């Protein structure tokens, strides 16, 4: 049953509510996500998927996944597979309705023949350059092609011969016969079919003419009974053309609704640019954790829920704007804070020897798995005489306000004991390579029975029990807020952040992390949120940092 009283939360739902009130679609709500399989999906696509799927779900309607596979030269099965995986991962469910525009090539061809018979389409022999020149501009009307008034018979014959492969690429096209003087350039006899002797990933060599996106899109929606054809603003001035096609054919007429695409600061969201980053080797593939692709975000450790929360927070609008990347990062942190299992990991190790702790002794200390989630329970962490701490948690000659370890200073080891630094060991160059401490056995668990306080708490791992890992730290891929806003002669790749990837080796992790699996979120205490990388093997563990605990960029900006 369709809910007629779903509260409007955005302008699209308001339109749908109105349709439900007037009975325009008999209370039906059917949406779709129509990707072209010419690249991997990015966070902008996620906005569209969640919008379309969310509407179908909220109105007890249906949601289709349809590949707009009308361009065989740019499309590949690899992209189809990745898109299916990513849409499913995001949580959108198309049930049994996975379709391809190529499923409808026969029907589209028949409809084109119908338009020719009705005198509404013609075969044009002008070259692509001539067609462009004849098209006119926003201020000048176009000119009619000398082939515009061919007879229906001649058009039918030529179109069939186009289909039969008698002509080379570019020799002829089929055009709609609308109005070369229309103020809307899309209505100046748009091309419907082009000749392309190319194999298609699904139809193989059956076709050597392929429908243009504008000819295919609206009719595909109509065939599937899509009620609300939601797309981005660039298609607003294509709507009159889609309406014209549907009206000429007299078939079911979906309502197109345009919304503003997602733009994110410090990010590019255009497949063409993303392909360039991959092909020129600026990143290590589509699923590089620095990419704004769904596969990259997944690999980095971002969850579908974080993306869903972000999409809900930004909503939909009718005017284009750019969302601050920090808002996305905020939702990533919020989500991971609630669900990430806490562990201790030392990224830049410095050895600490507890000189009054018995040699050969080991004990287990209880540590909380997630203070945000009591049901996550606790674990035991091994403790022994030799530990690792972070290099920057020790300073031999600290400034005021440095509350971590330094000679004579007492600090708390998280879940462990109070320790006091008594001595340091240096190499020939004077670098501290080992710190000697004593511990107070009465402070087990991190609290002193006499009530004395320490100013600093640091994390640690037992040297003998620690596991080694490589840890990859990521930063924004671009240094410029709008990487596409470049001066003449520059390329957006000139603004790639040279420090977007930092690889740390020889990191020391708490042993429980040997059980990690990719995608499972961890908080390394004080160091951020991490997940295991798919490159990881038991012999060579690799973790990705999803995000830092705090927004370090905001802090930097304040300092400036
Ligand atoms: P790109 O601009 O990245 O090449 P596209 O629009 O060409 O994307 P499609 O595969 O045609 O890619 O997109 C499928 C759907 O995703 C379309 O309905 C499109 O409107 C939507 N979409 C694409 N980019 C965004 C975005 N940045 N924000 C919201 N929706 C988007
Ligand atoms: Mg597109």
Structure explained in plain terms:
The chain is an alpha/beta fold and 560 residues long. It has three domains: 11-259, Rossmann fold, CATH 3.40.50.620; 271-339 and 469-559, Ribosomal Protein L25, Chain P (Beta Barrel), CATH 2.40.240.10; 343-465, Ribosomal Protein L25, Chain P. Helix content is 26%, strand content 24%. The protein has 13 helices and 27 strands. The protein has a seven-stranded mixed β-sheet, covered by helices on one side. β1 (30-33), α2 (43-58) and β2 (62-67) form a beta-alpha-beta unit. α7 (213-223) packs across α8 (239-249) and α11 (304-314) packs across α12 (325-339). The longest helix has 16 residues, at 43-58. The mean pLDDT is 95. Adenosine-5'-triphosphate (ATP) binds at residues 34-36, 44-45, 47-48, 231-232, 261-262, 269-271.
Shape: elongated
How far is the first residue's CA from the last residue's CA?
57 Å
Helix content: 25-40%
Oligomer status: single chain
Task: List descriptors.
Rossmann fold; Ribosomal Protein L25, Chain P; 3 domains; seven-stranded mixed sheet; binds adenosine-5'-triphosphate; binds magnesium ion
Structure summary:
With 560 residues, the protein is α/β, with parallel strands linked by helices. The chain is 26% helix and 24% strand.
